[in-house]
Each structure stands twice: as structure tokens, then as C-alpha cells.
Design a protein that fits this description.
Elements: H1 12-22, H2 29-62
Length: 66
């Protein structure tokens, strides 16, 4: 199942520089932007998981379990 796509507008100079720098790793600017956004979303989820873990540990400490 393919998800819907969106169109975004980016400065041509920025796209050209990114494509030039990362052409060995990514087929085009769409693939590069997709990879960057996926990484950012993943990092945010990991940070939330870490925050949740800390909150649970604090609660367990307050209750005397840790």
C-alpha cells in the first residue's frame, strides 16, 4: 500500500548543493529528504521513550522499588 505524496518547495540552490554532496547515497532530493525526515521522526520517538523510561524509574524510586 503506497501512501499519498505531498509536494514541497525548497530553494533550488539548497537542493543542488544537497544533491551534489549526497548523490552517491541517494538517487535524488526526494529520497534524501525522506531519509532525513524519517531519521528526525525516529529520534523524536526515541527521546520520548527515554523520557517515559525516566518517569517510570522516578515513580518506582518514589515508591521504594528502586
Amino acid at each position: 500500500m503506497k501512501s499519498e505524496m505531498r509536494t514541497i518547495t525548497l530553494p533550488d540552490e539548497l537542493c543542488n548543493a544537497a544533491e551534489s554532496k549526497y548523490r552517491q547515497r541517494f538517487a535524488g532530493i526526494e529520497e534524501l529528504v525522506t531519509a532525513v525526515l524519517q531519521e528526525l521522526v525516529k529520534d523524536d520517538a526515541a527521546k520520548m521513550d527515554e523520557a517515559d523510561r525516566r518517569m517510570i524509574e522516578e515513580r518506582l524510586k518514589d515508591l521504594g522499588y528502586l
